[in-house]
Amino acid sequence: AKQPVRVLVTGAAGQIGYALVPMIARGVMLGPDQPVILHMLDIPPAAEALNGVKMELIDAAFPLLKGVVATTDVVEACTGVGVAVMVGGFPRKEGMERKDVMTKNVSIYKSQASALEKHAAANCKVLVVANPANTNALILKEFAPSIPEKNISCLTRLDHNRALGQISERLKVQVCDVKNAIIWGNHSSSQYPDVNHATVKTPSGEKPVRELVKDDAWLNGEFISTVQQRGAAIIKARKLSSALSAASAACDHIRDWVLGTPEGTWVSMGVYSDGSYNVPAGLIYSFPVTCRNGEWTIVQGLPIDEFSRKKMDATAEELSEEKALAYSCLS
Ligand code: NAI
Fold this sequence. Notes:
By secondary structure, this protein is of the alpha/beta class. It has helices at residues 15-25, 47-60, 74-78, 98-119, 133-142, 157-171, 209-213, 216-220, 222-228, 230-238, 244-259, 306-330, and strands at residues 5-10, 36-41, 65-71, 83-86, 125-128, 152-154, 178-179, 182-184, 192-194, 199-202, 205-208, 267-272, 284-292, 295-298. It folds into 2 domains: 5-154, NAD(P)-binding Rossmann-like Domain (Rossmann fold, 3-Layer(aba) Sandwich), CATH 3.40.50; 157-322, Alpha-Beta Complex (L-2-Hydroxyisocaproate Dehydrogenase, Chain A, domain 2), CATH 3.90.110.
């Protein structure tokens, strides 16, 4: 039998945490034959709620769940974890300046980076979900220099899945038949959802999305803004931000990273830029990637038209500014 993997979820008493931990305990993240031990971290004001989540996990009697650690101690939370999903963070409240929110998150990610570096299992894979996700991941990377940069990522899979969902709705095809959308850049409204290389499986073979949709104005306009603004639309409808879709996307992200992407399919992940596609090196930027043997590789050589180039540069520009702001909060 396989040894259990310890999976850390920070902010586990929150909304996404509540949707995510049962998925992990059911094997949605690491597969139906991989036992897990859940490590849940939150802050003292949420300790009682966190303990309630632990009680429910016990009550759910998940066969794959071999243990639950619920704690407000970051060292205990990080010890021995092979996967870390960082959902905890400081939300932007009404009237708060961007810089103040950034200062709070920079200090959280700086200290959690050190704890992971010292106490996580070797080769621990880290996924940052909490916003600003790309920049939080960058801070984590900078303050955990012994964790290889290829092990630190941020979540843009939700945006990727939203793009697939919009195409599937528009064409009235199954979402599982749509693939190879790309989210470029920041997990923010400056992201560029790109379907220039996306395809749909049809009875007569794989067809480009553009050829099937036959409406460039929609693809270059409303499609992009719908995906960019989907988070806000969910908040408007639910009075709460996306949680089940975010949790599901976090499972997709880790599952594909660990178990591999299907042949001929790529997914979007926020990863450390090596300068591919002329994206400035040293940003955490969402790229199309394939995964094999537990490692991601940026898909190379895709032709980029002028329209795409501008949008890819604009979101890179925003990330450079966020990076500068984050550094200004450190000093
Ligand atoms: P939430 O407010 O319901 O939960 C956040 C939890 O984090 C709370 O329980 C809070 O006590 C905890 N927390 C705060 N500081 C912490 C710390 N230092 N250590 C550990 N835990 C801490 O928020 P929700 O809805 O679960 O969202 C979580 C984050 O995910 C937010 O930053 C949100 O913006 C982001 N998000 C990102 C998405 C993505 O696609 N990348 C999608 C949806 C949300």
